[in-house]
Design goal:
Four copies of one chain form a homotetramer.
Chain A: E1 8-12, H1 16-27, E2 31-35, E3 48-50, E4 62-64, H2 89-93, E5 100-103, H3 108-116, E6 120-123, H4 128-149, E7 158-162, H5 166-177, E8 181-185, H6 189-197, E9 201-203, H7 208-212, E10 217-220, H8 229-234, E11 240-243, H9 253-258, E12 262-265, H10 269-273, H11 275-293
Helix pairs in contact in A: 1-11, 4-5, 4-11
Chain lengths: ~290, ~290, ~290, ~290
């Protein structure tokens, strides 16, 4: 991989993850400007703080937004400023035509504005490979929560993982490696076969309520209402639900609360338990794509 | 699962695997007729030997062919007879319209004749789930060959697996579990990410020649000419190639021989190292499909 | 295993773990009296609260003390009372000669008093098998702390485990199962060989300072001053030390603090992260020993 | 590690393993003489063939015998000569007093003669660490035999390992890693606990006959008559016994044969399935000990 000499990147807002991205860009000798970082005490050597209004975007090869992108009003969140930060249409209009806008995920505002100005928009979290890399800190975070919120060991406990997709595969493997007794709820015969090969105990959705009766911990990775009243009512009193599926999750949280079953939504774990690793996953994509353009 | 009471199955030819299929059908209380089994000493209780010419197919709900199906002349192989065994067009024409023909894979003769008489043909080995189940005995067979044909332990040896598909995934995991140092050659970023998550060392095809220089054993699962002269000429003198890809494999066997590199094609391992398990994998599909019809 | 019908057990003080022990004794139909439990709201069915002064010990077959035993003044800690609780010499003198006193570990007061009255004293945590069972929740607790207190994934991070004894073996295996890159510091050639077999990277103590230079997390299980100034001064700035060795641990905590290296003592993890499992480990020993006496 | 410059080693007899030992000694720049190698076509560069009668031992720092040592008549086996090869008392008497005699195991002849002339005798296979290293190729060999001699996959099959010592620990882990359902027969509570921690299913010897009823493969590592008539008579008809314990093993082979149960003694697996690795394990000890003398 050659270096990113001379490439100009403007990082707008973000959190701890972005510091790792900035570090990687600097390591590749990109020119890095930081907007929304006025409270960051130690500016990494080589980076400069800028104000968006003063025009740094006009020369930018890449704009790097936070994982959450922008709000639908163009607002950008930053952990490093208390000032308001906006990616206005005016600013976008000023970008060179070849500039790439990197974000984790994009809301409609960002999509539309990029389309309007025919700018390349890269939603990093939508990439299959990124989802797999992120499944690792997600699984570690889920393990941490499970250890914290139960009064038994994971080793030997009965865990049910709903879904054997990117996160489910990693999580089920991890739990099994820790000595848990792992069942997985799958939809298709090929996932059933792969689970069997992995030494997991597969079953199909219709068996979930019955399986729930023996569950110690239920981990959901499916973004659909799968942990229903019927499932919850069958759980042992001390069972724990950890819901990793994107908002609003797959659990009837209100019913779980009414039944006295502990149910925890757990979103954005990579940024919480491993921000530096999460930043590196994002940074790798940005560096690789900028490098490919050279 | 309900039983297959009254379902009539005619098993035509086959090898050790078919004995397990027969046992499973009988266990489900199907009526089982055996054609091409005249040298089988111990007929499983409940099964009867038949001659195809005497008309058993007219009442059949299912015909079960060997894994290899038929030749393009309609011939069927059997380990249990020295007589010739043929699935002629006349016999197929006599089948009830609802009958299902099960085979592992089908050649054009079988496909065309089933189409002509609008009969359901099930190619069991083409199923994704069956390919995954079969990847397990395939991986075990590959491990056995590797232990036999090297003078070092697998533990700590450098193994390269080409391809991270159904067989490659299982094989790579198995080798790693045995303590080998496992690299995998993948094509896509998502396979690269999954390999990383699995603790394997992924690389892309352009790096294969260089990777070959450190290889102890090269396992190929890709049905394309991937182990080329360039790769072979870089291998250490004591390296071993085990080629699991379907005929003709992906290795330049002639060149390997000329270079004094041991290269072994390894096909049909499930039927060789675990015929009873391989039969059960097939039998499960047949029983499940016949049951679904009830 | 037969039941403990009629066996009389007096449980004196304790924490959440003791509730599981009580449950197990009741399940085996022992008669269970609880001293120091006046604030426990839900007394398990079949158990009765007692005052030690009222003489329950005179009939006792077993006395069950907390994991920490007694203080050297005879005091006993309880999470379920705010009153003071004492195992006085007078009370011990009143015990039947066949009574067994169970504790986790014993201080000199308890040892001497048992010796004086020739009473059997069982230090449960001193048992080799109990130490191994407890190594499992200890390892899980250490993993939880590691995930919480680093900003990178464990997967792929460089972990060094000092010691390959009961805790070290379990912890090293667990970390490796999570995908960490695990080195272990061992003293003897057989531990070196076993570590190699387990896929870990063994080294001897003289190499520790050099190994420290690459460490992400250092887990100590050796009750001796092993993480010295020399080791700490070589650690990367973001390294984390988790010290699992019994008080005072093996780390120069003051020096670590001065150097800005995060160092966490982590004691009593089984009772913290998995009190119910920890109680079961203790309860299994008690039930088994009482049963053997029948 | 410094080099063995100038150290004189005489290798007497041996098999493929010795070639690796010779290679390692030469790599360390020792002077290597070979007795009993007249049929070895390619003498490694730097080594010289000698006749024992011509006095090479008088200058030797080390004598390296085969793994099996000598017969009780002083005879030494060699795969590389058809001549008789003897380590006579006269030859031993000629050795310098500082010379070390390396062997795998020693019979009484060799022990006595070394004692008589106060020569250091190193029985390499008696070392705890060497036994652990050798457990790895032993486990791989056992796996190979199991795959060859059963008609089912190891994955999912019920394996019982008798003994959780050096070989048992490695073998049980290996089988579990391959997806087998592994039970282990242990004698002591601490082995029971460790097996539990490893995810194995431990039981004590009195339960062996009952456990045998579900066994697919029985692996013995205990050098005592443990697989008795009672055990064998309970085994399923298709069970396989693989006996790894040193001669005469722990199986009633005659009774197994009479019952039609396949029972295979499997000795010396490292030298059979991985002679180069087995040689390296031996060579490491020799090089390290000679180096320590320098």
């Amino acid at each position: 991989m050659s270096l990113l000499n001379g490439k100009k990147a403007v990082v707008i807002g973000g959190d701890l993850r972005q510091l790792e991205v900035i570090r990687m860009l600097l390591e590749q000798q990109a020119e890095v400007s930081l907007a929304g970082y006025d409270e960051l005490a130690q500016v990494p050597e080589g980076a400069v703080k800028v104000q968006l209004e003063q025009g740094p975007l006009a020369q930018a090869d890449a704009i790097i937004l936070p994982v959450a992108g922008t709000g639908n009003d163009g607002s950008v969140e930053s952990s490093f400023t208390s000032e308001s930060l906006m990616l206005t249409e005016e600013l976008v209009a000023a970008l060179p035509k070849h500039a790439i806008i990197f974000t984790g995920i994009a809301k409609s505002y960002l999509r539309e504005i990029c389309e309007r100005y025919t700018l390349a928009l890269v939603e990093i979290l939508a990439r299959e490979d990124v989802a797999i890399y992120n499944s690792i800190p997600t699984a570690e975070g889920a393990v941490m929560i499970a250890i914290q919120h139960t009064d038994v060991m994971l080793h030997g406990s009965r865990c049910i993982v709903l879904g054997l997709g990117r996160v489910g595969t990693t999580l089920a493997r991890t739990l099994k490696a820790l000595g848990a007794d792992v069942a997985v709820c799958v939809h298709k015969p090929d996932a059933y076969a792969r689970a069997y090969e992995m030494g997991l105990q597969p079953f199909y959705p219709p068996d979930l309520p019955q399986q729930a009766e023996q569950a110690g911990i239920l981990f959901n990775t499916v973004p659909a209402p799968v942990i229903t009243r019927d499932v919850i009512s069958r759980l042992p009193r001390q069972a724990l639900i950890i819901d990793l599926a994107s908002h609003p999750g797959g659990t009837d949280f209100a019913y779980a609360k009414a039944q006295g079953i502990q149910a925890l939504p757990a979103l954005g774990l990579p940024g919480i338990v491993a921000p530096r690793s999460a930043g590196r996953i994002i940074g790798n994509v940005i560096v690789e794509m900028l490098d490919a353009l050279s």
